Amino acid sequence: MAKKPQSKKRTRSRRQPARGRRAGVTWRTGPFVATAGARTASGERVTPSSAMGLSSYFAGARNISEDVAKLPKAVVERLLPRGRAVLDEHPVTGLFDDGFNPYCDAFTGVQTVTFWAVGWGNGCAEIEFNDAGDVVALWPIHPSRIRLDVSKGVPVYQVCVDDITGRTTPPQPYEPSEIFHLRGIGDQWQGWSPAQVHAETIGIGLAARGFAAAFFGNDTAIGNVVSLEGRIPKQEREAFRQDLQKNYAGARRSHGLLVLDSNAKIARMGLPPQDAQYIETQEWTVEDVARILRCPPHKLGHLKRASGWSTLEATNTDYVVDTLMPWAVRWEKEARRKLLVGQPRRRLVFFFQGMLRGDFKTRSDGYRSMVQGGVMTPNEVRELEDMNPSTSPGADELWMQGAMAPMRRLLSGPAPTAAAPGSSSSTDVVEPPADGAADTSVEDRVRGEALAERVGRKVAAAFARHASSHADDVEGFRSWARRFTSQLSDELARGAGPILGDRAAVWAQSRADAIGRMLVESFVDRRTVVAAAVEAELSESLMEVL
After folding, report:
1. Tens digits of residue pLDDT in 268-312
2. CB 54 within 8 Å of CB 301
3. Hey, which end of the chain has fewer CB within 10 Å, N or C?
């Protein structure tokens, strides 16, 4: 068949791009290139595989890959003019929900490819298509069996596999569209292995581990040495040793009087403390690996500088945002380029809501604000908490607080209202009560703000006094906090009685319990209780009940 003549396109001359040039550390693994690794100054040869022998490095790669794999994932379609829909029946959703292929479930697939990308800099999988061009499977390929060749200016993946007999087959070329390539930080072609970039740092950790193993495995430390002048027969030396061991060895015989003859001299042997600093070296290596992998030290099991629970919660949020999200974005971008070709409004999404929910109190406060602000429906909140939807009327509607009003309306009194149809006039104004009573809503707000301000100052002052007097006595402070909140509940109930009526007792008890928990948490975390914060919380809660 004759080739169809191509139309000539007008082009302007420009400099040839630097195709095939790769900056930084290259993909030096597998049968194509030597895998021994360069010898570091510590004497260790560091490769992506040997670096996994360092516990902190392995823990960081494992944590990142497992945490990315456990996230819910699905293909989402952007709707017009706004909104989005989760496509549960999409083939790509099935890959990340059911399994990569008949022999690899979705969790294992994402974990494996991410683990390779973190450790080797590149995680790859062959994309299998059916006759219709749809993606039907992903087959992970170990980094040691694949190489990216750009020598001719066009990227080609050279894949080398083992046959049934165990022999290595010649490399087979794959086009970029046939390989799912998850890159770590690197250049436009491939990622760099942290083990190669930071070979010296990891080499120090491996050397310290080897030194510790040799130290305990080859322990020939001698407690004391006795030197005798001249050549002493073996039997006499043994008798002398047994005499010393029998009469002077042991804790009960220590510091006794020892008489030596033949100009014998005794010396104590041992390992100087400064020679055992490899323990500090290992701690330093853990912190350095945490910097390399952008992973908090406590995620690597390094709790020497662990802080309170509130600080750890904030650190976990930073871990999700700064460590996991970049890897999720890499997955999403590569999936859009290779698995969702020709589907511009669809993309793979990793859902992080579950990992960012925080503790129950924080979630409850956030849900309350979203529902009362008209942003979420009650059933949407129940779905996020893995609860079945409610069938109650209004559970799928947006709600908003109706008690708010402009300040000018509160100062000027009730606004005029139109008369009902059929009345004498549509412009009649509602007159204030004959007895001249003031607007009760304004009075209630004033009383509530005064109560909140008074209690806020009292709570802050009491906390300052008793936190200082109890020092580190947590149980003593808890006991005081229980007595204080019991008294505070009665005071809140009396103050809120004219405002809330029968509801005052329940509201007062719940607020007092919340304040008690805040006092204990602040004492444990060594934080200060601010009167303005207590006042704002009480005022907001009171207005919600109103």
Report:
1. 655 554 455 555 666 777 888 888 888 888 787 776 655 544 566
2. no
3. N
What 8-state DSSP symbol labels residue 432?
P
Q: Which of 40-54, 248-262, 349-363, 410-424 is predicted least confidently?
A: 410-424
| DSSP 8-state code for residue 299 | G
Q: What is the pLDDT of residue 14?
A: 41
Q: Which residues of 287-302 are buried (b: 16+ CB within 10 A; e: fewer)?
A: ebbbebbebbbbbbeb
Residue whose pair of structure tokens reads 């595989």 in the numeric block: 49
> Both tokens of residue 332?
């999403």
CA 359 to chain centre: 14
Answer whether 300's CB lies under 8 Å from 289's CB. yes
Alpha-carbon distances, residue 451 vs 110, 174, 497, 501 (angstroms): 55, 74, 11, 15
In whole angstroms, give the CA distance from residue 348 to residue 337. 10
Query: Which helix (H) or strand (E) covers residue 538, if one does?
Result: helix 531-545
Neighbours of 419 (CB within 10 A): 14
How far is Cα 434 from Cα 412, in angstroms, rounded to an integer? 17
Q: Is the CA virtual torsion 92, 97, 99, 104 positive or negative?
A: positive
Query: Full-prediction pTM beyond 0.70?
Result: no
Q: Residues in the chain, how many? A: 546
Q: Identify residue 417 by its one-letter amino acid code.
A: T
The two three-digit tokens of residue 484, written as one number: 């204080």
Structure-token pair, residue 212: 């510790």
> How far apart, in whole angstroms, are the C-alpha atoms of residue 231 and residue 209?
42
3-state SS, residue 400:
strand
Q: Given this model, what pLDDT does residue 167 score?
A: 67
Q: Is the pLDDT score of 25 beyond 50? A: no
In whole angstroms, give the CA distance from residue 48 to residue 118.
10
Coil, helix or strand at residue 140: strand
Give the pLDDT confidence score for residue 124 in this predicted structure. 93
- C-alpha 183, offset from chain centre: 20
Distance CA 104, CA 428 (A): 76
Contact 76, 346 (CB under 8 A): yes
Residue bearing tokens 């444990």:
524
Give dist(CA 355, CA 384) in Å, integer: 11
Handedness of CA 441, 444, 449, 452 (dihedral sign): negative
CA-based nearest residue to 107, from 96, 116, 117? 96
Nearest to 225 by CA among 286, 276, 268: 268
Q: How many CB atoms lie within 10 A of CB 462?
A: 17
Sign of CA dihedral 457, 458, 463, 464: positive
DSSP 76-101: EEE-SSS-EEEETTSHHHHHHHTEEE
Structure token digits, residue 256 = 């006794």
